[in-house]
Amino acid sequence: MKPALSVIFFTVLSGAGYGVWCLVGAALAAGIYPQDRIDILLPLGFGFVLVTAGLMASTAHLGRPERAWRALTQWRSSWLSREGIAALVAYLPLLMLAYLAWRGAAGTRVLGALLAVCALATIGCTANIYRSLKTIRAWRARQVAPLYFMFACLSGGLWLWAWLASRADTYVSDAFPLALLVLAIVTALIKVDYWRGIDALPAPTAGHATGLEMLGAVRAFEGPVTEESYLTREMAFVLARKHSARLRPIALTLFAAVPALAIAIALPSGAGWLAIVAAAAASGGVLVERWLFFAEARHAVAAFFPRAVP
Amino acid sequence: MTSLPAPAKKKLGLVIDLDTCVGCHACAIACKEWNDGGAFGPLADDDPYGADPHGVWFNRVHSYEVQPPAHANAPREVTLDSLMGTAPPDAAGTDMPAPQMVHFPRSCLHCETPDCVTVCPTGASYKRAEDGIVLVDEDKCIGCQLCAWACPYGAREIALPHPKTPASDTGRTDQKRGTMQKCTLCVDRIYNETLDACDRQPACVLACPTHARLFGDLGDPDSNVSKVVAERGGFALMPEFGYQPVNRYLPPRPRRDGSTIAATPTQPAPRAETLDTEKLPPLLRWLDKALSR
User: Fold this and answer.
1) pTM, two decimal places
2) Which residues from B are below 8 Å from A73, CB to CB?
3) Less Cβ around it within 10 Å: N or C end of chain B?
4) Cβ of B223: how many Cβ atoms within 10 Å?
């Protein structure tokens, strides 16, 4: 699949934003979050910027962005529609929570829980958009949905930690960065498992696509046109499979190894600035991971066409 | 409304005969011609006569080379190349039949339970309850392309400017469509009472010079198309997706009589190639040598 930058930036930025919202909301609901006003407002505001920037980026993928509101109508059947609704609904508990925190009023526990649920629901809808496409077998893998949640919580969590670690007068338990460390390692293991799985998938063949395999071995002799078309540009993207051997270790290093190392060094030494390095590296790593997620996925329709590049 | 309608009795669709298709692309051209001026607006067509044309086609014709399997005393009658009378002798002396060419028009199959309809977030993509035709309402489509991603048959193409178009040109009104386009089964022809009854068929069907395309109601077991599908073993493409395509493809026919093909002297030219120059008269031997240099 062609890795459209608009969709990649949407899933990475909004994912991190929803991760921040989810963790702040859950911690507020559990009553373990610092009660200082700025500790609530600033991370939520940062998440707001990420989520909103991501949603804006996603409209760049549309041929007619001015009609985007129409996408809210078909929630009965379409995960994309559900995602749009969930994304808008999530702003409600966010804004109410921000208002209550600003006023120092009570009720942040309930709204925190609501915000966490809405953020998770939106991430789940995003994952299901991809997971529900039968034509792209790589995205049908059982690891796809868990990984969307984990990458959101990992990248968002690291940004949240970066803020909290910079606050000298706010106590943050070591349990939070330690949990992020474990999350980074588990995410890496599941991602490697996903890659192993998609590498083992047989490439769809022309014989199967056309049904002509019953007559013998089928080779695509000629495409319908001599030039590229929408289908070959969009669905038969082959660049990534050429470079995946190099990009996968880069992604793993950035989203797992660097944050894990930064946490392991920062905790005993108290070097809080390492948290920013960890968060930035993780977001960069998720960007590479998401690029590969699209670019490595083979679409069934590519089988109809002669192989462009090996 | 992108939820699917209750299954209809009437299932309009195409039957494509891979035995008689000669790969002339007339169906694709006729389709482009009709739909460019049809009820669904013009088809995207960027730089059509330039070095790198880019546009939307509802119908695209592929060509495949099929190599029938080798086996002892290969029944030559099942190979299509022999149909063409072009079967060369096996160089290695095996029973490997010569490959055959199959031309393969690919278009929307108007599936009964397609995901391209249900993934649509706007209700632009829909399946008609009355005859099963899958259409796009271009006034509602936001161009998210999810329906094209959901289709394993490559039936949908988006009308966007050529990717290499300079940004300053992408705002041109003739390039700003930005919506998904697909085969309409010529819905603006088949019910068009201003046309003669015999012309109320999809443009591709009327254009085909070998009658390799048939149009009809595949939901009616007594229709001509259903009968020919039953008779010829018409098959659906990639049924494992569960979309239940309505269109059917008729497989290439086997050879009528294998023995006559084996006996047909189709190999004179290759035999002449194994020329024994020692047996030639001296003048010709010299000529052969001179020409072989």
Assistant:
1) 0.87
2) 121-123
3) C
4) 18
- Choose the closest CB to A210 out of B52, B104, B115: B104
Helix axes A144-165, A274-295, angle to 10 degrees: 160
Sequence ranges of the domains in chain B: 12-59+107-250, 76-102+257-292
Q: Closest approach of chain B CAs to the CA of A85, in angstroms? A: 11
Q: Is the dihedral of CA B26, B30, B33, B35 positive or negative?
A: negative
- Asked if the model's pLDDT at residue B66 lies above 60, the reply is yes
CA dihedral B19, B133, A77, A91 (to 10 degrees): 110
pLDDT beyond 60 at B75: no
Predicted confidence at residue B170, as pLDDT, reads: 52
Q: Is A74 in contact with B122 (Cβ distance < 8 A)?
A: yes
Contact B118 A78 (CB under 8 A): yes
- Grade residue A173 by pLDDT with cuts at 50, 70 and 90: confident
pLDDT in tens, A129-143: 999 999 999 999 999
Residue A95 or residue B83, greater confidence: A95
Percent over 90 (pLDDT), chain B: 57
Cβ count near A104 (within 10 Å):
9
Chain B residues near residue A81 by CB distance under 8 angstroms: 121-122
User: How distant is the Cα of A76 from the closest Cα of chain B, in angstroms?
Assistant: 7
Domains in chain A with CATH codes? 5-304 (1.20.1630.10)
Binary contact (A225, B67; C-beta < 8 A):
no
For residue A243, name the pLDDT band (cuts at 50, 70, 90). Answer: confident
Read off the pLDDT band of B169 (50, 70, 90).
Answer: low
Closest B-chain CA to A78:
B119
Does the interface predicted TM-score (ipTM) exceed 0.95? Answer: no
Would you say domain B12-59+107-250 falls under CATH 3.30.70.20?
A: yes
Contact A62 B235 (CB under 8 A): no
Sign of the alpha-carbon torsion through B280, B282, B288, B293: positive
- Interchain CB distance below 8 Å, B62 and A304: yes
By C-alpha distance, which of A128, A127, A142, A244 is closest to A197? A142
Of the residues B17, B27, B66, B80, the best mutation for testing chain A's interface (the one with the most A CB atoms within 10 Å of its CB) is B66
